[in-house]
Amino acid sequence: MVNFKQRIRFMTGARSSVALLVAAATGAVLFMVVAGAFVYSNTRSLISSGQWVQHTQEVLSSLQRVSLLVERIEYRSRLYTLTTNEEQLARARASANQLETSLVHLKVLVADNAYQAKNLESLNSCAENLIRSANSFTVKSELSANQLQLCQQAIGLMMDQEQLLLQERSKGRERNSFTSIGTEVAFVALSLISLVVLFGFLLRDVLLRQKFGLQTTLANERLANTVNALEDRAHESELLTSARDELQLCVDVQQVYQSAVNSFSRLLAGTSGSLCMINNSRQMVEVVSSWKSLKEGENQERMVEDFSPPESCCGLRSGQPRWRKPGVSEIHCTHFSGAPPDRYLCKPIVAHGNTLGMLYVYCVSEKEANAVRQRMDGLRQLVQLTGMAIATLNLRTKLENQSIRDSLTGLFNRHFMQISLERELSRAARRKQALAVFMMDLDHFKKFNDTYGHAAGDTVLKAVSEIFRSSIRNEDIACRYGGEEFTIMLPDVTHAVALERAESIRRGVAGLRVPLDKEVFAEFTISIGMALYPEDGETVDLLLRRADLALYKAKRSGRNQVAQYEASAMVG
Q1: Quick check: bond before 309 cis, omega within 30?
Q2: Measured at the alpha carbon of residue 498, what is the angle toward residues 492 and 500, in degrees to the nearest 5?
Q3: Class of 2-202 per CATH?
């Protein structure tokens, strides 16, 4: 009887346990369905918020491009009026066409924003006027400053509005992110509780604690790895931002080289390397900057040196980043002074489709090589930033030289001479310093040119220009005034030093020997007229006119001499 009652009690308890287990399982399933639906809803909301943020960023990017195109139209048009270079006008018109396309794209982007649509109408109006002006622009035309200001003002209003939208949508996305994370955390926590309840009927507390402890340990390890990865990515992003800002501040390529190497050494900690650029002849690769992290026992032979031809580097030869590692690639580059290292990376630097040089990275061990591989995306971005900075500065230097230098002699042109003389006169007046101006003319050059041809004459002009460059200081300014006439400005110079400098130039030209077509031309002479600020004049026109009068005095007195304004007899 007792056994029967115990059996009934056991069966009743078993049924209760099964019923409780089924109820718990059913509740858990329902909870997971509801929680999953809630998580799905939050995820959709988060994705939508992210899409709106991305949309706003795309609008801002399009506005920035429109602003850049407006500035390009203005810059190219002004450059065209200064240089009359048709290529500059063509570029201004090309920018105008791109501006029209960008406005169409911008109109599609802001179609959902009535306020921005009104601003876009204003922008379209002034942009159409600007495009028409660019398409009909001539040397004597002038861009309307009012139109440019209206365009920039409309762009500024639209960008301000989009910045506000971006802030609001970013905050909304953050709120959705926090909600989603909170929901997922709550879902995970409640799911664990449900699992504990379900498996509590089957497992002992000790086994459950062991299993839960193991899961917690694994989760902590994954979380630690994730946190480390995020911190590393954040550090890399911060470094790239800093590198980009530093490169934008550089005013010459030497600064770019040093700034880039500093960034590479920070990004690739524990490595050594060099920034190598292909020279103008495209026949040699020169090491322009390096960084080192040499450990005990390493030596300089691990570093790359200037080499020729560029194909000595496997990376430059293939046009692709190239790792050399034991067991992977046994072919070495041939640009090492000693025994090549076991592990190194050669990555070409390319900008606008042109290969500018390569980045060499030396890794002591596999640990450093793995660290470099983990940062390949950041390295790729930094190499791109460096290449674009170098290409931009090279292009800027080329354009500046084209606008201010004489194409034949490489001296400054007459337009730059006028600007420089005004600037130097103002500086001399402020500092109470003297300024000498030489007007120079090659004697009987027209006769030489008519006798031997323009090619021979051009060669002589280049040779004479080299004498000028070697005879003056860095702060002196040598210009080609026109034909065989030249002008040199010497700031902060005494009368005696100016006279000695002029005599040095005269002697240099007199001793000039120019080989051409198996002949050696000699017996060239130059006449030099000199005027001094302030005693001979205090304005640009007056100084040039009096230096020119001194030049004619030197011509009338027999050429091949230096004459001073109102003091030529003393120079004799």
Answers
A1: yes
A2: 140
A3: mainly alpha
User: How far is Cα 445 from Cα 550, in angstroms, rounded to an integer?
Assistant: 19
Residue from 428, 423, 399 nearest 493 by CA: 428
**H or E stretch covering 256:** helix 253-267
Query: Quick check: 421 pLDDT over 80?
Result: yes
Which architecture does CATH list for 253-401?
2-Layer Sandwich (3.30)
Token pair listed for 536: 């001979």
- pLDDT value at 296 more than 70: no
Helix (H) or strand (E) holding 172: helix 145-200
H or E element that contains 93: helix 86-109
CA angle (170 as vertex; 165, 173 as ends), nearest 5: 125
Reply yes or no on domain 414-571 having CATH 3.30.70.270.
yes
Taking the domains of the chain in order of start, what are their residue ranges?
2-202, 253-401, 414-571
Other beta carbons within 10 Å of 113: 17
- The DSSP symbol for 344 reads E
Question: Whole-number mean pLDDT of the chain?
Answer: 83
- The helix or strand, by DSSP H or E, that contains position 423, with its residue range, turns out to be helix 414-431
Indicate if the pLDDT at residue 567 is higher than 70: no
- The torsion defined by the Cα of 476, 477, 478 and 481, in degrees rounded to 10, comes to -140
Q: What letters, b where the CB count within 10 A reaches 16 and e where it falls short, cover 52-77?
A: bbebbeebbebbebbbebbebbbebb
Cβ atoms of 249 and 328 within 8 Å: the answer is no
- pLDDT value at 304 more than 90: no
Same fold, 253-401 and 414-571: no
Question: pLDDT class for 118, splitting at 50, 70, 90?
Answer: confident
